[in-house]
Design goal:
The chain is built from ten helices and twelve strands. The chain is α/β, with parallel strands linked by helices and about 325 residues long. The strands form three sheets. An eight-stranded parallel β-barrel has the order 3-4-5-8-9-10-11-12, surrounded by four helices. Strands 1-2 form a two-stranded antiparallel sheet. A two-stranded parallel sheet has the order 6-7. Helix 6 links the parallel strand 9 and strand 10. Helix 3 packs parallel to helix 5.
Amino acid sequence: MSIISEYKLKDMKLKNRLVLPPMCMYSSEKGYVNEFYKAHYGSFALGQVGLIIIEATGVTENGRITDDDLGIWNEKFVDGLKNLVDFSHKYGSACGIQLAHAGRKSRVKNLEHYAPSKIDFKDTYNIPKEMSLKEIEYVVSSFGKSAKYANLAGMDIIEIHAAHGYLIHQFLSPITNKRKDNYGGELKNRILFLKMILEEVKKYWPKNKPISLRVSASDYIEDGIDIHMMVKIINEIKEYIDIVHVSSGGLIETDIDVYPGYQVEFSNIIKKECDIPTIAVGLLEDYNLSEYILKNEKCDLVAVGRGLLRNPKLLMEYVDKNKLKYNCLTQYERAY
């Protein structure tokens, strides 16, 4: 197994195992795709990235992280997103989108922010409103509708964002979920919100297309989520998903020992103990490191964020420097 080997998950076929993870660009206007996004995501398709995952996209208007994030809470956003998908497909890349709600980490102006409990992220953020049962139901239904719009746009995969301290993560972690009803307390209750979202999404998302779940495998704080708790969470809901995108942190501000591959063991544990494919992420742009973790089956796909931002044609660089047998775009052959 190599970074240039093919991969298939349900009906999604990837020509290689390099993934662009979702990274917010904060460059949208009222939630719409604009010329920046066409050029930005198009560069990774031209660079032959196997799977391009469009950044965290709001399932509600106040679910965006900022006013400058993409939206998918209405069918009016479909055409712009479809342009990104069509260009990716034209040059052989699969394309997906991350469906997200920021919860207490939303900084959208002039709209109410809410969370499982009335706990702010930090002093510079608003104190969120504790979600009512009606608001929970609304957000759940919004994820379902957004999955429908993602399918209309032709996405090959959707990713449910349950990581980095955003709304679903806030429900999962005992640090941010202090509810006394059926959505708080013991682990099975804290999982309920995620389970309801996945059940709703399955109503609208085709069975032949995969669903990814982005998770933070550790909160890096005592009494928060750790890898053992995350294994339990995934085993409770894995019937609804097809692959886990394994990250960590983001719930609170805390020191993390960051180094190339620092999250790989989380991916390895989830892959083995939950018997489910994984995407590893976290400073993995070094070719030898990516090859090592793939060959040792610590993950199924490798996501490279910052490295691809610096060089969208990173895969071609791998091929050239390591004399690999791989067909890159003919338009760029003279450079390698």
